[in-house]
Amino acid sequence: MTSLPADQTGSLPNLQTTDRAPSTVQLITVGAALLLAYGHYILWMVQRWWESPYYGHGFLIPIISGYLIWRLRKRLWQLPREDFGWGIVIVVGSLMVHLAASFADVHFLSGFALVATIFGLVVWLGGRAWGQTLLFPIGFLAFMVPLGRILVEQVAGPLQLLSAQLSGQAVAMIGGVVTIEGTLIRTPIYTFEVAIPCSGLKSTIAMTALAALFAYLVVAPLWKKILLFACAFPVALIANAARIFVTVILGTTIGPAVAEGFFHSVSGIVVFLFGLAGLLTVGRILGCLELRKDI
């Protein structure tokens, strides 16, 4: 009767361990299967990026994620391929979610299932260590998923009211005569409506992705990274309120043509710059502005 070979410690070898990295053929085969399963959703998602005013940043997310993975490539090839069996479980589970979401016509669930499938494939092909190393670069892809229209509208409504209150109160604090009626900000000679595009939802979505990337790249304890990410919402809200405040001031002092003309066209860039400055300020307060050197 023959027995299984033992390693130097006298124990049986780990059947879930190998140093073999995924081959080019495997990568191409898996990529083709991924496109076959999610091709229809990917086309829909790209169309949403192109048409939706909230998800134009979606084109940048895969590029940033791919760049992070590229920067980690040397470390990945040095990792052992072990405990990779769980990758199949993740892939099967996420594909079942995608199938259910397709029948229910809930597109954003398919988007999250796509991200989970990619992560499962990484664990299956590369092992647990690959999954741990690429957890953020792959998880970052979740920011490219367009959320459902109903969900967006449910969030945009409260943001409209909150933005109107913040910006209107700011006008009153500098001595302006202002009345706030829901989403309307009225001065004696100018009225501004905080419509859904001005609610700050777009800047909040983009700023959340930026804050997640910033928290990943800085050298800091985990609690500071979490706090930095959590500050994305208030920073985006304040930046959007500042844009509305400036718009109301311009409309009152100079005229609606200026407020709703050139400034309105460039206000998106202004909000982004305000938000970026806000994140950097929070980072400085937390003392975590040093960037990681291993990426």
Class inferred from helices and paired strands:
mainly alpha
Strand order of the largest sheet: 3-4-5
**H/E series, N to C?**
EHHHEHHHHHEEEHHHHH
Q: Helical region count?
A: 13
Short recap of the structure:
By secondary structure, the protein is mostly helical. The chain has helices at residues 24-51, 60-71, 73-77, 86-104, 107-126, 128-133, 135-139, 149-173, 201-217, 222-230, 232-253, 256-259, 262-286, and strands spanning 17-18, 81-82, 179-181, 184-187, 190-193.
Secondary structure layout:
Layout (H helix, E strand, L loop, with lengths): L16 E2 L5 H28 L8 H12 L1 H5 L3 E2 L3 H19 L2 H20 L1 H6 L1 H5 L9 H25 L5 E3 L2 E4 L2 E4 L7 H17 L4 H9 L1 H22 L2 H4 L2 H25 L9
Antiparallel strand pairs: 1-2, 3-4, 4-5
Description:
The protein is mainly α and 295 residues long. It folds into 2 domains: 17-146, no CATH class; 150-286, no CATH class. Helix content is 67%, strand content 5%. The strands form 2 sheets. The chain has a 3-stranded antiparallel β-sheet, with helices on one face. The protein has a two-stranded antiparallel sheet with strand order 1-2. α9 packs across α11. It starts with 16 loop residues before the first strand and ends in a 9-residue tail after the last helix.
